[in-house]
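TOKENISE THE FOLD
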Amino acid sequence: MEKGTIILLNGASSAGKSTLAREFVKHMPEFFALSIDDFDLVIEKMEDREQGHLIPVSTEHYFHRTIAMFSDSGVNLIADQIWHDVPTIKDCITVLQDYPVLFTGVHCPTDAIEQREKARGDRRVGQAKAQLGFVHQQQEIYDVEVDTHRDSIETCVQLIQAALLKQEETRGWAQTIESFQNSCASS
């Protein structure tokens, strides 16, 4: 069975990744959206956080393997997450390095992200600003980049669709893996 295509959205919290994924699926119904936020809700329901009864493995560990499992079953995904630290990047690359990934950078200016955080009310204001000190700063090489503040969600969807059509020409995912592995080897 052919592996399903994975559109991996990377960006700070409140950058518009989940909104973009949901809209993308409306235009490309052969894809399914999977969000790290939704996935974390599953983990949260399993845990008793007030009593400290926590799963001792990061949510991303299970998330990346779930993405791989769907792809192995031929399911196309648009998955959003935040490359917020080195262990998350290492795990993502280790699990998904041999998968058909369209690596997508989702950008949004800090002031717009902070406005979105305040409007949402379910995020700590300043969380995304702190993440932007790391996200998009690890020599990521994206196959396509979108800005959900500058461009409409519709335009962002169209940019990703266009990148999918010329996927043979995109090498961002492979170059990101190579760059990250080289930087790990030299440190």
Q: What stands out?
A: The radius of gyration is 16 Å. DSSP finds eight helices and five strands in the chain. Residues 59 and 182 are 26 Å apart (CA to CA). The mean pLDDT is 87.
